[in-house]
Amino acid sequence: GAGVSQSPRYKVAKRGQDVALRCDPISGHVSLFWYQQALGQGPEFLTYFQNEAQLDKSGLPSDRFFAERPEGSVSTLKIQRTQQEDSAVYLCASSSRQPYGYTFGSGTRLTVV
Amino acid sequence: AQSVTQPDIHITVSEGASLELRCNYSYGATPYLFWYVQSPGQGLQLLLKYFSGDTLVQGIKGFEAEFKRSQSSFNLRKPSVHWSDAAEYFCAVVTNTGNQFYFGTGTSLTVIP
To answer: Given its phi and psi angles, is residue B99 left (phi above 0), alpha (psi -120 to 50 degrees) or beta?
Structure first.
């Protein structure tokens, strides 16, 4: 597609529930990034893929967070046993040539109740 | 370590007035600098970026920014604000490997008719 697509747009999860957030990058973009944006804050880096390889996961806040991109296109961010502090907007971005071509998706707003 | 500071949490201006949003960065090498805008419930839209060369860069929607190495600043300006410019503005620096953005905490802009 023309842009980065994220689904769902909104997700409400009960504490302890597992969630999966999907990102469809721009076709042909080899680099894919996940960011977490808490309310009133700037986005913070979570993880980075080049094709199917996860090259940097230093920003993942705990081992409950897991990301994958098995075929080098669509990526899924999974959060296990969600906690209230996981409530945030999760942004995905893709790029064909860093750092020039970053395009962000509209994000998934996760609310943990 | 890289960091970005946006000293103004919230700014209010009258429609038609000029605007300047401040951004200071901390980065050891020559930075790549960006300004993004985020409307409520939306993703990040790129306004402009600086990599090298002319220190005054022009962006979309009539915005411009000036890179001042001596002041470690990259302030965003617009000569005449429109009501549709009301949004959250984020300054960001990217490392020269382009693997992650470091965002400021954002400046919320309110435009008064």
So the answer is: alpha
